[in-house]
Amino acid sequence: MISIQLRSLTFAVSMVLAGAAVAQEAEGRTRFILAASWQPAFCQTNQKKAECASQTGERHDATNFSLHGLWPMRQDYCGVSDDQKAADKDGKWSTLPEVTLSAEMQAALAKAMPGTQSGLERHEWIKHGTCTKMSVEDYFGVSVHLVDALNASAVRDLFAANIGKTVKADAIKAAFDKSFGPGAGDRVKMSCRRAGNVRVISELTIGLSADAGAASAKTAGLGDLIKGAGKTSFGCDEGVVDAAGF
C-alpha cells in the first residue's frame, strides 16, 4: 500500500515538473538584452560628455530612443586581454581598439548611438560584442536594426508625444503589446533616475531570444525576438519623458 502511494506521489511530482518545463519552454528564455536609452535623461546627469554637450532639440536622439547596446546574457569580455579589460573598466575608451566599420554602417551607428562621440561603440564591442559569434559589422548592424524597429513603433510614438510629461508603466507595456505582440511588455524593464526633483525615464532593457545573436537578426522582426524571451519585472512604474536641454 505504501509503495503504491509513493509511486503515485512520484508520478504526481514528475507531472508537475514536466508541466513547469513545458511552461518555461513556451515562455522562452532571455538570451540577449537590447538596451535603449532616452538620451535627454541620460544627458541630465552626464552634461560634460561630448554627445550631451552637442545635443539639440532637433537631433534624432532628442525624440527617439538611442542605442546603448546589445548584450549577451551573463557573458562579457570574451577573448579580451587584461590590459584592454582594465582600460575599459576605467572608462579609458579612447585607448581601446578602433571599431572598423563600412562607411554606411558607421553613419547609421553615429545616428543611432550618439555615444560614439565618447567611444561607446569601442566599449560595447570589447565588453559585449566579443561574446557573440558575429563580426563587428554584423553586431552593430543587428543592434541598429533593432533600435530602428523600436523607433518605428508605438513605444517611440508614446514617448515623443509625451515629452515633459509623466508616462506610466501600463501605457508603455500596452504600446509594446500593440507593436510587438501580446505579452511583449512583460519582457521589458524600465529604469529611471533622479534629475533634481524629477524622476525621469532613462532606459528600457528589452529581453530577446538567442536568435538576436546571429547576423540574420538584421532582417528579423523585433516582435519575434521579444516573444522568444522570458518575462521580467517592469522596474520603475512611472517617470517623466525628459526633453533635450539642461
UniProtKB/TrEMBL annotation:
Residues 1-23 form the signal peptide. Pfam families: Ribonuclease_T2. SUPFAM superfamilies: Ribonuclease Rh-like. Keywords: Signal. The keyword Amino-acid biosynthesis does not apply. InterPro entries: RNase_T2-like (IPR001568), RNase_T2-like_sf (IPR036430), RNase_T2_His_AS_1 (IPR018188), RNase_T2_His_AS_2 (IPR033130), RNase_T2_prok (IPR039378). PROSITE patterns: RNASE_T2_1, RNASE_T2_2. PANTHER family: RIBONUCLEASE T2. Belongs to the RNase T2 family. This is Ribonuclease. It comes from Rhizobium lentis.
